[in-house]
Write the structure tokens for this entry.
Amino acid sequence: MDARAKLERRLTDYVTSLRRYALVLTRDGDRAEDLVQETLTKAIAAADSWQPGSDLRVWLFRILHNTHVSERRRARVREDARLMLPEAVDETDPTKRIELQQVLDALEQLPEAQRQPIVLVALKEMSYAEAARALDVPLGTFYSRLGRGREALRKIVGGMKSTKLRLVV
Amino acid sequence: MTLTERTDINAYLDGELGPDEAAEIEAKLAEDEEARARLEAYARQKDQLGAALAGLGEGAPSTLKTARLQKRLAAALARRTAPRRVVFGGPWLRGGAQIAAACALVAFGWWGHASYAPTAPNVPEYVSEAFGAHTVFAEDVVRPAEFTGGAVDGAAEWFSSKIGVPVSAPDLASLDLQLVGARLLGTKEGPLAQFIYEDTDGGRYSLTLAKHPEDRPLAPLKVVDYPDRAVGYWSTPNIDFALIGKKDGQAIQTIATNLAERI
């Protein structure tokens, strides 16, 4: 496989991850796709500033993050939107499916600053240092946001279970 | 449990700790039931989120527009690393460009992996690509070279016949550098020789030699600093050189100056 083909394959993987992250940020499929396209457009324009020694994936996530932040200033994210687990997810055990949707719902209740570190780490592709770079925050800040976020998530999910909240899936 | 302790549990869960720190956390976990429950909850939620996020990706197929942008980005990024003739700096850079082309071809071998050679601002692109060849071969302590030990002498003969001018590995013992291997880099513009040296601390250097084009003036020594490494390049009437090492510019300058004076 030549260099270009390898690069394209890697980009396909990155774009898939970017789309997942964009879905969490926007909670809306169309908006998420717009955000990904905006990110790619900016990356094309800034390709000459990309340092070939640096991590392409972190660079792209950083562009997406900054684009999202500036768009939030212009238009509010649909706060009422709910991030739904797609029907296509092959989960035969309905209890598990409910649990997955539950954790997505719990995630939505967190402040965005806490949600982002949790999601970047859950995508299982970035180290703390890389994720902190993508979010443009110091490592210490990243640490504490992740710590607080995960603890809050644990309490929210715990609360959901204890109140036997019924979820429509 | 304090915030710091909770953070440590997170770092442990995400594999961010070294073995000693991890052992410390494990010792704490062994006697703290609440911490164990917390770790278990964090781990379960991380897995569930990972599964849910993977599901989100499946539910959103790529649109044509996204695919088109992705292709354009690939093209733009490929231009950043593809071999390119050096267009600035005057014709004397051509020898260097040859080294660049060699390294660029080699560079395709690791295109797609994580380690690109960084490009410092305002340096000919070939310098960063020579740098890449160095990091792939010279710093590989297990299998850095195709010729090692006594075979290097025989290799130099072969290199010379390929390159068209006599090349050999300079003796750098006076600088405490030991020759550890050699490799011929094939390029569309001609073959180049890479000699690999090791200092007393095990640090690796590579010296890349190319035939100097007869119609080109000589290039003075230039040293470029990279994060963590430096590159020195210059030319003689017969040969163009590039010296790369995991040192600062000053150290490379010292070796390159010494070498340039003796050759």
